[in-house]
């Protein structure tokens, strides 16, 4: 008789109070926190960039330097 390949065994269920479950929960929380921080930083830098672009558009391109009176 030919040998048949066995199917992949189902992943074991992790007990909710086990060390492994705590490790997985920590890792998941860490990934969520990193993603949230990345998005917040991107939004903050985007706001700063928009402000700088506004100031750049308001500058007179003919002037090379500004004095305090001009400001």
TrEMBL record:
<dbReference type="GO" id="GO:0005634">
    <property type="term" value="C:nucleus"/>
</dbReference>
<dbReference type="Pfam" id="PF11176">
    <property type="entry name" value="Tma16"/>
</dbReference>
<keyword id="KW-0175">Coiled coil</keyword>
<feature type="coiled-coil region">
    <location>
        <begin position="24"/>
        <end position="51"/>
    </location>
</feature>
<dbReference type="InterPro" id="IPR021346">
    <property type="entry name" value="Tma16"/>
</dbReference>
<protein>
    <submittedName>
        <fullName>Translation machinery associated 16 homolog</fullName>
    </submittedName>
</protein>
